[in-house]
Design a protein that fits this description.
Length: about 80
Amino acid sequence: MTEINKELLVIDRFENDFAVCFPVQMQVGAAPCNLPKAEIENDAKAGDVLVYKNGFWRVDAEQTKARRKKILAMQNNLWD
């Protein structure tokens, strides 16, 4: 497990009591970080962007929406 920076993270998946996350601005070969579920907003799900505020990881709805929109656009461009 890597040291957790207080930057924007995206949830890749959940494993047991942890969320496996990567930085939004991920570099090739970046190692994941494991956040305890107890430190994350309850309604967080895979694909959500998290921001660290007041000692807690919260879903950033705007960043999540923008990221999903960008990914959908990239997927649609594959078939154009």
